[in-house]
Write a structure and sequence with these properties.
Blueprint lengths: L8 H35 L3 H29 L1 H21 L3 H29 L2 H31 L4 H5 L1 H15 L14 H19 L6 H23 L13 H31 L4 H7 L1 H21 L1 H18 L9 H29 L6 H26 L10 H29 L30
Helix pairs in contact: 1-2, 1-4, 1-5, 1-7, 1-10, 2-3, 2-4, 2-8, 2-15, 3-4, 3-7, 4-5, 5-11, 5-12, 8-9, 8-15, 10-11, 10-14, 10-15, 10-16, 12-14, 13-14, 13-16, 14-15
């Protein structure tokens, strides 16, 4: 049984190393968008390369995150966590030294592999180490401090880009890893799951990542209308079907399909796909809009996006309490509509836009919408499955959100007719940004309608979220295994 107390020196070291590890991945998910215009200019990259700079990371992370958690259970959570930290740092170093866009994209894919190992591992270490009386508070602190890291990300990224240069956005991970890994090896006890075995769904993980990569390639390169695009689309669809078949027939699938027999679970994941597709597309394009069209520096653009994360940190716990009293349907219906209104308000953000009059109102409405929906979304996911499968359900929901975001980043430029050099022209980018915001708003309205017609009040004895405070704007919080 775990027996480390949060108030002990060892407890503080465990909390520190898990926060450092998870913050590395959270920082990268928020700071890279701010650096994209500078990366493009420095490496002579077109818009497709910038899309891949974001999506290469998300493809491997979304495809492998469930497998990463299983590896920790079997081979040791500390061991896999440290491996993920060091892998992430090595890939970050390669990103920072990349001589061209191709190397950067490949390094970003490797970063995603490291993220898939360390992201579930950081929470698993807390659950496996702390005494039951302290576990809830430890998870809350881990989630809250991680949210602070996510909030600092855009500001820190903008400061680095405008100062030392965009490469330091990635190189910063190296000293963090060199601090995190020794602390973990010295102070974090090793743990594993005695019920885990050596059979892993490597084929399922590979098919999932391949399907995401091939379909993403088809969407990003569709404007060329080449045979390669058509073949990629077909191969991606085949890989997706093969993934479903493997998960259905496999003895130990990483994503057991019977979990979707719960109509509530399936419906809430549809809502997740809608809202996080909109969020992923928004934060990718908004960081570019503020720099390319409005003309702000990377620091100003990154700082401008802070209100959404700050609102999440301040109000997410209260939103969760409200959902427990009222049930989740009202908030899951109203929240996406508020977010859609924020997207529509972004139509006012163009050349010469004022932060106080144009940008801030849109971000405040968007942030309030995110606060309203994220906590009940997680609660609904957990309530739709048995207590023993809470960690699995949360992992699937988290992966779905990441997959939705990468599809949006790939598809929105195609749907809005954004050309390869659009981010170099204020007029061209602004012309595409406006319909993109309307598309995002429409997807959010669809999510609201799905929630209103499908989400029901959970049973009184269902699992409750442990991560009450949440700051990531691109993914829902991860919840851990509830099995004793």
């Amino acid at each position: 049984m775990p027996d480390v107390r949060l108030s002990s020196p060892q407890g503080k070291w465990i909390l520190l190393t898990t926060v450092l590890g998870s913050s590395m991945a959270l920082l990268d998910s928020t700071v890279v968008n701010v650096a994209l215009p500078h990366i493009g200019r420095d490496l002579g990259a077109d818009l497709a390369a910038l899309q891949w700079t974001v999506n290469a990371y998300m493809v491997t992370l979304a495809g492998l995150i469930l497998l990463g958690g299983a590896l920790g259970d079997r081979f040791g959570r500390r061991r896999i966590f440290v491996l993920g930290v060091l892998w992430f740092a090595a890939a970050s170093l390669l990103c920072g030294l990349a001589p061209n866009a191709g190397v950067l994209i490949a390094a970003r894919a490797l970063q995603g592999v490291g993220g898939a190992l360390l992201t579930p591992g950081s929470l698993a270490l807390i659950q496996a180490s702390f005494h039951a009386d302290d576990r809830g508070r430890a998870v809350g602190l881990w989630s809250g401090f991680g949210g602070v890291g996510a909030a600092v990300g855009p500001f820190l990224g903008g400061w680095l880009v405008d100062g030392a240069g965009w490469r330091w956005v990635f190189l910063l991970n190296v000293p963090l890893a060199l601090l995190c890994a020794p602390i973990a090896l010295r102070h974090v006890p090793e743990s594993s799951d005695e019920r885990a075995h050596t059979r892993f769904d490597v084929l399922g993980a590979a098919l999932c990542a391949a399907a995401l990569a091939l379909l993403t390639y088809a969407l990003i390169e569709a404007r060329t209308a080449s045979w390669a695009v058509a073949l990629s689309a077909v191969a991606g669809a085949v890989a997706a079907v093969a993934f479903v078949l493997v998960e259905r027939r496999g003895k130990d699938p990483m994503m057991p399909l019977d979990v979707f027999s719960s109509r509530q679970f399936s419906a809430v994941n549809l809502v997740t796909l809608c809202v996080y597709a909109a969020f992923g597309g928004f934060f990718f394009l908004a960081a570019l809009q503020l720099q390319v069209v409005v003309g702000w520096s990377a620091l100003a653009a990154g700082t401008a996006l802070l209100p959404t994360t700050v609102l999440m940190l301040l109000l997410s716990a209260r939103s969760g309490e409200l959902a427990e009293r009222l049930g989740p349907r009202l908030q899951l219906t109203v929240g996406p509509l508020l977010c859609a209104a924020g997207m529509v308000l972004m139509l006012r953000v163009g050349p010469g836009a004022s932060y106080l009059a144009d940008v801030l109102p849109a971000l405040l409405v968007l942030g309030l919408g995110m606060v309203t929906l994220v906590a009940p979304l997680t609660a609904s996911v957990l309530a739709a499955v048995d207590t023993a499968r809470a960690g699995l359900a949360s992992g699937i929901n988290n992966a779905a959100a990441r997959a939705a975001g990468l599809v949006a980043v790939a598809a929105l430029p195609l749907l809005t007719g954004m050309g390869e050099e659009a981010y170099r022209s204020a007029d061209a980018f602004d012309d595409a940004f406006r319909p993109a915001m309307l598309i995002c708003a429409g997807v959010l309205v669809a999510g609201s309608l799905i929630a209103f017609t499908t989400v029901r009040r959970p049973a009184p004895d269902c699992p409750r979220p442990e991560c009450r405070t949440h700051g990531s704007v691109l993914t829902p919080p991860l919840e851990g295994d509830r099995t004793p």
